[in-house]
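Fill-in record for HNH endonuclease.
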Amino acid sequence: MQKKASSQVNSNSEKRKSITEPIKREVLTEAGYICANPGCRTILFELHHITYVAEGGKDTADNLIALCPNCHSRVHSKQIHRESVRAWKIMTVAINRAWTKETATSLLFLNSAPGNDLVLTGDGVVRFADLIVSGLAEVIERNDFVGEGHEPFLVTIEPYMKYKYPAAELSKRAYSVRLTTKGTLLAEAWKLGDVEGINAVLGEIDQKPSPDHTLLAE
């Protein structure tokens, strides 16, 4: 029995070794060389088969996702549901088709940001342009903020972003950026691994699914 198990492990290992370098690069580039779990984003990664090799899953980019060793182990030990992995893949594909890695980071950042405490100059608002154009975030002009005499304004929310602006720059014109209801729904669905929730929001912003996207959503 032990020999059979060992043989099966070796067989699976051989199949994993068959993943070509171009496929590996495609999957890792797609993920931005970070873990696809939105609650992790660790810069350590392994390739995980969404449909397992034992179930007929192939060594193709649409069936592979980058996960850190810890998240990878948690998926196989069923601490992370496989449906969540499918949701992460859908978001990874959508981000690459419509936005940038920075846009994805901004979405997660705003979902964790302290509301109106995030004060930006016009240049800072530009960082969120893709989200604003997509209707996932909105800009609010801050007439209540007076920069003169204030200490440099610092916002730090790990592990996503850091902003620091001299108060004098904010005295002329300042803004807050926050997620719209749609943006909040997308961020929460992404973090929860909710495939239906993700597809519902992506459909509203005219995100046309690719064949791989449709396959994963089934």
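KEY FINDING: Residues 1-16, 152-158, 207-218 have pLDDT under 50 and may be disordered.
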